TrEMBL record:
InterPro entries in the record: CFAP91 (IPR026720), CFAP91_dom (IPR032840)
All residue ranges annotated as the CFAP91 domain in the record: 1-74
GO cellular component terms attached to this protein's record: axoneme
PANTHER family: CILIA- AND FLAGELLA-ASSOCIATED PROTEIN 91 (PTHR22455:SF10)
Protein's name in the database: Cilia- and flagella-associated protein 91
Family: Belongs to the CFAP91 family.
Localisation per UniProt entry: Cytoplasm, Cytoskeleton, Cilium axoneme
Length: 470
């Protein structure tokens, strides 16, 4: 029975574990779906905000560009209407500045000099004043410079005559080209920092598979093979000698251990047999002790495992009971809440129905009341109209005669006597009869009381006489 119960408990435990695992999987799936939905929602919000910010940035840039173009157009229009302002001449500053037109006039204006004493400062070399001086100057210059100067042929300078209108059109065209270049640069603006990061992440996401590098190839040796073999042999000899040195150093360090091992090998057969017998005896003792210890430990472990299994079963049963109790309480709470909600909903429905019926009844009552009132008024009006017509038609004369008869003094006096005097007399007679009826019982009581007192007095007088009244 216990084994069957254990098997049943194990099967039940496996079923509960499977149900719990399924619930955990569903819960994890729900959490993962919620997290993905939340991430998607936040991504959508971020993308929406990003698009809004980009739109605002584009609008701001377009507004700035429009304002700039408008300002440039205003400047270009203002340049068309600008006139050269004539400033007054400052004679003091002109004479103080030796680079002004006073000392160096412009020849295009038709002035050679404005200084009347400038001829005193002009240099007039004597060689240039006569033909002999010029010839002497030519002879003094080297012939190579003269030939070189005559050999150089410079192209004639063609000076184009450009008017003010052409210069103004050229300046306007330059401004328009600069504005067009600025607009193109604004349209081809650099991507924002976030876009650059997204492009970089996209590049990392879309990484191409690593291409296999080319297989290295060994170049043929450029030297002689015999020399290479000799060098390899020399390296092997050097390595072997190094290994021999390491082995010798290790032997020197472990010399005592080697001697001890050699002494063990030098033992005799008898010594080995004695050592073997002692070792076998020690091993037998050790085996017996280990077997006893193994039995004790196995029994203790078995008992502890059974105790642990029992404790685990108790814990599992207690957890199952607690889980069942918690589930029962939750279901009871849910059922109570559901019943409470149903009762509340039923009360609300009944109250709504009652209010609706009250409204319907009041509406029907008011409707019937209005209808009956209208009908009564209509019938009363018709009846009054008919009575008025009847009175006016056939009963008018009869009513007039009756009213004339009852409106006389005798009729009025008879009505007053009939309605007031006679009823008053009847009421007084009734009150008198009531008083007489009421006095009848009082008189009877007094007579009975007086007869009783008389009898008592007679009895007392017969027994001993009445006492004196004094």
């Amino acid at each position: 029975m216990s084994e069957q119960e254990l098997r049943d408990w194990n099967v039940r435990e496996e079923q509960i574990f499977e149900v719990q695992q399924e619930k955990l999987a569903n819960f994890e799936a729900g959490l993962r779906a919620d997290a993905e939905e939340r991430e998607l929602h936040w991504d959508e919000r971020i993308e929406t905000q990003r698009q809004i910010k980009l739109t605002e940035k584009d609008k701001e840039i377009s507004q700035i560009q429009r304002r700039r173009i408008k300002a440039l157009r205003k400047l270009s229009e203002a340049r068309k209407t600008v006139e050269a302002k004539k400033e007054p001449r400052d004679i003091v500053s002109e004479y103080a500045d030796h680079g002004s037109e006073v000392y160096a006039p412009l020849t295009r204006n038709g002035f050679i000099t404005r200084d009347k004493l400038a001829h005193q400062y002009e240099t007039r070399p004597r060689q240039l004043e006569s033909l002999d001086g010029l010839l002497e100057l030519e002879r003094s210059d080297p012939a190579a410079k003269i030939l070189e100067a005559s050999a150089i042929k410079r192209p004639p300078k063609t000076k184009l005559k450009v008017g003010y209108k052409e210069r103004q059109d050229r300046r306007l065209q330059t401004e328009l080209n600069r504005t067009d270049a600025a607009l193109r640069a604004a349209k081809l603006a650099k991507p924002s920092e976030k876009e650059q990061k997204e492009q970089l992440l996209a590049a990392y996401r879309d990484t191409k598979p690593i291409e296999r590098p080319p297989t290295p190839s060994v170049m043929p040796p450029s030297h002689d093979e015999e020399v290479e073999m000799a060098s390899i042999l020399l390296q092997r000899l050097l390595r072997g000698r190094a290994m021999q040195n390491q082995m010798f150093e290790g032997k020197e360090r472990r010399l005592e251990l080697i001697k001890e091992l050699r002494t063990d090998e030098d033992l005799t057969v008898e010594d080995l047999e004695e050592e073997g017998a002692e070792e076998a005896e020690a091993n037998a003792k050790t085996d017996r002790m280990e077997s006893v210890l193994g039995l004790l430990i196995s029994s203790q472990l078995d008992e502890m495992s059974k105790e642990r299994r029992r404790y685990c079963e108790e814990r599992r049963i207690a957890e199952m009971v607690a889980e069942a109790e918690r589930t029962r309480r939750m279901r009871e709470a849910e059922e109570t809440g559901r019943r409470h909600r149903e009762l509340e909903a039923r009360k609300e429905a009944q109250e709504r129905f009652r209010q609706i019926m009250l409204v319907h009844n009041s509406s029907a009552a008011s409707y019937l009341e209005d209808l009956c009132g209208d009908v009564i008024n209509q019938v009363a009006a018709d009846q009054a109209r008919a009575e008025a017509e009847l009175k006016h038609g056939r009963l008018g004369e009869l009513f007039d005669r009756l009213e004339a008869r009852h409106s006389s003094h005798r009729a009025i006096a008879g009505d007053l006597v009939q309605n007031f005097v006679l009823p008053e007399v009847e009421r007084q007679q009734e009150r008198r009869a009531a008083r007489v009826e009421a006095r009848k019982f009082g008189n009877a009581a007094r007579r009975a009381l007086s007869s009783v007192t008389d009898k008592v007095e007679q009895i007392l007088a017969q027994e001993g006489g009445l006492p004196d009244e004094s």
